[in-house]
Specification:
The complex is a heterodimer of chains A (86) and B (328). Chain A is mainly α and 86 residues long. Chain A is built from three helices and no strands. With 328 residues, chain B is α+β, with helices and mostly antiparallel strands. Chain B is 53% helix and 11% strand.
Chain lengths: 86, 328
Amino acid sequence: MRQKIEEVLRTEANLGLDPQDLGRDVDLHSAGMTSFASVNVMLALEDEFGVEFPDRLLNRSVFSTIANLERALGELVDQPAGVEPR
Amino acid sequence: MQLATLKQPPYTGEAPLASCHLQGMANILEAQGLVDAKRKLYLAWGFSWDGEGGELCNRRRWIPLANATYDLSIRRHDFSSWQDATAVETELASASLPFVAAVDSFYVPSEHFQVRHFDHTLLVLRADLTGATLVDPMNAPEARHYGRKTYELMRTHACVPRFHLYCSSTYPARLTPEEEFRRTLEALDESIDGWPNSIAALDAFIDAARQESMPIRVAEPAAEHLYLAGLFEFLGEQEPQLGEFARKFASLSKRWYFVHTLSVQTETSARSQRSRLLRLLRDLRDREVALHATLKSAVRRKEIVGRRAENLAERQPQKAQIRQGDPS
């Protein structure tokens, strides 16, 4: 999962450095990701993992670190079919 | 007016979408004597929709409210021709009045410089037949001179709506803190009382947005809420119970900007985001209604109303003294 997240961040987040070099808890916004770019990241992650972020997860905190993204996506990907409809 | 101070304006840096003209006007008003202008100038809260197109706005209500509160003369000029715009710019130059002008950022240092045509606004310290001296508080906050030809190109591109500009030609009223507080709440009262019309407009917009083809453009409400957050931060320094609304307006601003960005980013994508956007809009609508109820209750609390009544009582004797002093 981390590799897929890194790939999305690499292409969509406009970070100042390679996501592979970022710690799991490094603030992505401080690393250069704008609010605008975070929307692109969200959409790309949804496409990559075949999920839709529910409204309760559409906040700055979820998209602030790789660790938070992993947690959120882990929750969505593990949901039984039909619980988090797209 | 301290025109020279505009060469290094106090309000600089990133101005989110639909707010750069407010940053520009804040700089002008500060130079004209309105201290802390950026937090004070925006006093309107509401929605308006013309029934066509996808743009939600508030019909620039902030302008008459700022004018009424601080005895200003802020105007937005829209022109049908560049010649008409030039005539007004010449008048402003002869009066040494700076203004905020809409330009094509293709021609100025910015992320769009020589890449794409995108409307932006910046400060014009002076524009005449030789060219223009400009300050872009957001991208390059130092004075730069552009030749006439380049200035005309940046002012007349198709992305610049009606060559518009903003200016103000009067000094702000010198108000005591109490008078300023009272007038500010009076301005907010207008938005609070006008809420039924605002919600009706928002409901109509959301209803129309069910059509997949309708673009959803809500950057203006997003910018409005951003500036209202600043206003309530200012009011909270005088009345702490009003300060809590700064956080609420800031949060709503972020949500409105998210909806705008999501709509723009996904307009041409294969996967429709329409149902999600509608859900977000309805949620925003509910949050706006809830905020209105709590804000109305807060500004009409007995102690705040009492403070305003005291201000009014203090003012009336002054009015009487002025009349007694008039020559017969």
